[in-house]
Design goal:
single chain, alpha/beta, Rossmann fold, Arc Repressor Mutant, subunit A, 2 domains, five-stranded parallel β-sheet, 13 strands
């Protein structure tokens, strides 16, 4: 895997680069936001949010605008508000210093597993009201305009679409989308649901089943067979 390490602490970056190479990764180094944005393509980015020239969140947003590479925020900023901001800005995961190499390697593997394309089931285009989801192209449109989603946001939406309106428990979603059953990721799930709701627009298409999980608030119509603008009504989100 080609890893872009964005870190201005040279001692820490040297040690981490050595460990990554021992795990078989090619490592690109950047010690500033400008260098990170000018770097070549990578499979995964380890991004320190405390950079000397630019705010790390701005670097994250600009990286996400041009690339679907996995991004793990690696930072000393451990407060919940910082984690939520990082995830909302497009990070696939958030790792607080100090950490062990085994944990980092496991998180990198998980991010890469989620990045691998999946073979869509027969009938891979779905419409719910004004929203069309194309699982094969990993594309979402609303009123014929493309909606830009992060990889994890799309994976979450795709899981709900494949459920066909049935309730997915939080545990099922965490297992399918995040490959974990650790409930500590629950806040991450809530952030991604909120992001999806905001991007897909009203009426809310993701319904909360309190104490259980989530489901689509309307049944998807498959194979792109619903005519443009056809509405499929369901109960309102609450």
């Amino acid at each position: 895997m080609r890893v872009l390490l964005v870190e201005d602490d040279n001692e820490f970056a040297d040690a981490l680069s050595t460990a990554l190479r021992r795990h078989g990764h090619d490592v690109l180094r950047a010690d500033s936001g400008a260098q990170a944005l000018a770097a070549g393509p990578a499979d995964l980015v380890l991004l320190d949010l405390g950079l000397p020239d630019m705010d790390g969140i701005e670097v994250l947003r600009r990286l996400r605008e041009r690339s679907q590479a996995g991004v793990i925020a690696v930072t000393a900023r451990g407060e919940e508000r910082h984690r939520v901001l990082g995830l909302r800005s497009g990070a696939d995961d958030y790792l607080v210093k100090p950490f062990g190499m085994a944990e980092l390697a496991a998180r990198m593997d998980a991010v890469q597993r989620r990045a691998r394309p999946v073979t869509p089931p027969p009938g891979h285009r779905f419409r719910i009201g004004a929203v069309e989801i194309d699982l094969a192209r990993r594309a979402v449109f609303r009123d014929d305009a493309q909606v830009v989603l992060t990889r994890k946001e799309f994976d979450l939406l795709a899981a709900l679409v494949r459920a066909g309106g049935a309730v997915l428990s939080r545990e099922q979603i965490l297992s399918d989308v995040w490959q974990t059953t650790w409930q500590g990721v629950g806040r991450t799930l809530e952030v991604h649901v909120a992001n999806l709701r905001a991007k897909l627009g009203p009426p809310r298409l993701i319904h909360t089943v309190h104490g259980v999980g989530y489901r689509l608030a309307a049944m998807p119509v498959g194979d792109g067979s619903a005519p443009a603008g056809a509405a499929v009504r369901g109960e309102p989100d609450r």
